[in-house]
Write a structure and sequence with these properties.
Largest sheet: 7 strands, parallel
Structural class: alpha/beta
CATH superfamily of the largest domain: Glycogen Phosphorylase B
Radius of gyration: 22 Å
CATH topology of the largest domain: Rossmann fold
Strand order of the largest sheet: 3-2-1-4-5-6-7
Number of domains: 2
Shape: globular
């Protein structure tokens, strides 16, 4: 099958990593895939270098950069930004004409919107995956973005959701699109060989996430510093000016800021417990939780997005501790207590590790490919009947 993936950027983020992993997995399964990027000026080669088999296409970088500058001026003068979208519509149409895809699969609203316009001349089957931006605009009441989202959701042939919260919000906002929606968890190539679990020496709490305050970095530091044991360690992976500022303020030599990693599984093998005390309002299905579970690391995370369901195995056991508090002011205390319990209670730690192995199975990439193929190959009539 010929699959044309379309997304906005390839900078560090769960959606961007998933697009690359999904494309790579389809290629490995014998399908033809091309990946079109709307903003080639926003591609992190440290990510793409891991997926050399995935062919990436885009408009000329210089042309896009000039269009971005033009859009800034046009936005100030007239309140709209047509340049980048117009250029990408043209170049995406050229790729479609040459590649002749069987299906279009776009990710994130700008890519969804551009793909709809480019597809008017081709009428190819168009599937989108909602990672968080559509939902974020609805939550914030952004009327302009909501109208664009509504047009997209009414036009496309299939909509993949990755959380129950997304399903609830969309069913309330746009009940007419319910027949197009299907929930599919993001797949992840689960490793067969895992490092041995913690036995002795230092006990390391770790976190990998986007470098924004809402992921709970400061709360993790505040909770960790209340643990006075010298064998305790806190290891951070991520990069941003915000994290650099946090690093400059730290005096606890047990805390390490390791920066960016393009090999998250290798990084996670260095820790004993994974943290994600997020209060990010658009949290849905954080990849970092999948990665913790995949390497049988107990997880301590807030009850945001789909996280609670992610941490459950088939028997309802929780692979760690779920924190119900959602505000930055209330997270630190329960986070400290959870970290303390998992560090001190060996039996609890090992049980949660066992549950993590089972919880990770729901993110099998093979299962994910199979479910996406069923949507790619469905016709509109079948989808409505389902």
């Amino acid at each position: 099958m010929r699959i044309l993936m379309i997304t906005e950027t390839l900078m560090t983020g769960g959606a961007e990593w998933f697009v690359l992993r999904l494309s790579d997995a389809f290629i490995g399964a014998g399908h033809e895939v091309q990946l079109f990027i709307l903003r080639p000026d926003l591609i992190d080669e440290r990510m793409t270098s891991q997926f050399k088999a995935v062919p990436i296409f885009h408009a000329p970088i210089k042309l896009i950069k000039n269009a971005v500058r033009a859009d800034r001026v046009l936005q100030k003068l007239f309140g709209f930004q047509p340049a980048v979208e117009s250029i990408n519509k043209h170049y995406l149409s050229n790729v479609m004409e040459t590649f002749k895809p069987d299906v279009l699969h776009s990710h994130l609203l700008p890519a969804d919107f551009t793909t709809i316009h480019a597809n008017q001349a081709f009428s190819k089957r168009h599937i989108i995956t909602i990672h968080g931006d559509h939902i974020q605009y609805i939550k914030k009441g952004n009327s302009k973005k909501i109208e664009i989202s509504r047009r997209v959701l009414q036009t496309v042939d299939g909509i993949v959701l990755i959380s129950d919260e997304q399903k609830r919000i969309l069913s309330e906002a746009l009940p007419a699109i319910a027949s197009k929606c299907k929930k599919i968890y993001n797949g992840y190539p689960l490793p067969e060989n895992k490092e041995p679990l913690h036995k002795h020496g230092n006990f390391t709490f770790g976190m990998i996430a986007r470098g924004i305050p809402e992921k709970g970095w400061e709360q993790a530091i505040q909770a960790f510093t209340r643990i006075k044991k010298q064998e305790a360690r806190l290891l951070f992976f991520g990069e941003s000016d915000y994290l650099n500022d946090l690093k400059s303020k730290q005096t606890d030599n047990r805390i390490t800021f390791a920066g960016f990693t393009n090999n998250p599984l290798q990084a996670i093998n260095q820790i004993d417990v994974g943290l994600l005390p997020t209060y990010y309002p658009s949290e849905s299905l954080p990849t970092t939780v999948i990665e913790y579970l995949a390497l049988q690391k107990p997880v301590i995370a807030t009850r945001a997005g789909e996280i609670a369901q992610m941490m459950e195995d088939e028997s309802g056991h929780i692979a760690g501790v779920i924190i119900s508090e959602h505000t930055p002011e209330t997270i630190t205390e329960p986070l400290f207590q959870a970290m303390k319990h998992l560090m001190e209670e060996t039996e609890l730690y090992h049980k949660c590790s066992e549950y993590a192995v089972q919880a990770a199975l729901k993110f099998s990439m093979e299962m994910c490919l199979s479910k996406y193929l069923s949507i790619y190959q469905s016709d509109a009539k079948t989808e409505k009947e389902e």
